[in-house]
Amino acid sequence: GYIATWGGNVLNEFRAGWYHDRFSDYADKSLLPSTGELGINVAGTQFGANPNFPSATGEERYQYVDNWTFSSGTHTLKLGGDFSRTQDWNRQIVNSAGDYIYSSLTNFAQDFSGNTALHKDYATLNQTFGTPLVNLNIKRMSFYGQDTWSPIRNLTMVLGIRFEKTFIPQPPYNNPPYYQTGTVASPNINFSPRIGLVYQLGNRTVFRAGLGSYY
Fold first, then answer.
1. How far apart are CA 97 and CA 29, in angstroms?
2. 3-state secondary structure of 144
């Protein structure tokens, strides 16, 4: 962050931030059973490889904020903007080798024996295909203006407005029969007005009121 004064009545504050977080799980291949990376479930007991490994999740965020404060007479004016970019990604190859579910130990033993003359005796096979990486990149920007005004000695009024815009990534694929799946809307009219009043009734009593809308 950096704060600078321009003359006696102008103040500027600039801030920049970077945030990074990562969490990952990897399977220890030296501990894998003889069935390798296959997930195996026999009568409700999981004893093959963990079908949820490997996986990794991360987030990276950049943010830039700039605020200006101007003072003139009974007015204090504030203007500023904020821009941020957040990237969330998840890499998880769930059940890439397959997760075989058997209803009994006998059925599993018949498959595990390698007797090709027997029918495959697993009840269910779950396996994941497709792109294992999900990457979501969202950009946001906002601007605001605010005036703090004291028209009389015991009254202070705060008037402000804020504009926000989110740039949402669009789906890479869509279902033609459902046009709603083709785009994700991002409104351009997210204006948020604010108003506040502070009135000093006496030396020991202050009345406050405020109203605003938020997105």
1. 14
2. strand
CA dist., res. 139 & res. 166, Å (int) = 6
Determine the distance from the C-alpha atom of residue 62 to the mean position of all C-alpha atoms in its chain, rounded to a whole number.
13
User: What per-residue confidence (pLDDT) applies to 115?
Assistant: 64
Whole-angstrom Cα distance, residue 75 to residue 148?
Answer: 6
What one-letter code names the amino acid at 159? L
Q: In the chain, which stretches have pLDDT less than 50?
A: none
Rounded CA separation 205/56 (Å): 56
- Strands 39-42, 124-126: parallel, antiparallel or unpaired by DSSP? unpaired
pLDDT at 84: 97
pLDDT at 148: 96
Please give the model's pTM, rounded to 2 decimal places: 0.67
Asked if residue 97 lies in contact with residue 36, where contact means CB atoms within 8 angstroms, the answer is yes
DSSP-H helix ranges across 48-183: 105-112
